[in-house]
Design a protein that fits this description.
Length: 101
């Protein structure tokens, strides 16, 4: 059986490749703000900080705090470096251990 082929679909395979590369490059610009566990701060203190600094809902902050406690760390926010750096600095100012990766 013969299926008609649109030759325009095969005219520029380079363009499709370039679009895929551009998408991957944009994905590389996404950073993670990771909060680490400590033996000093209370659950309530960490929850309050995540709500105020990272704009979490109460439920998000509680879930992240539980993950930090039991897993040792949790990604609390993703985004551009410009967006995450002020949040990271505010967490550090509250004696919370975080990093941007």
């Amino acid at each position: 059986m013969f299926y008609p082929v649109n030759i325009k679909d095969y005219e520029n395979p380079q363009r499709e490749y370039e679009e895929e590369v551009a998408l991957l490059e944009r994905e590389d610009e996404v950073y993670k703000l990771v909060l680490w566990n400590d033996d000093v701060n209370t659950f309530d203190y960490v929850i309050e900080a995540l709500i105020e600094i990272c704009e979490h809902t109460l439920e998000q902050a509680e879930q992240c705090t539980i993950l930090v406690h039991y897993k040792g760390k949790c990604t609390v926010k993703t985004g551009s470096l410009e967006k995450l750096k002020p949040m990271h600095e505010k967490l550090l100012a509250r004696s919370l251990t975080s990093e941007i990766v």
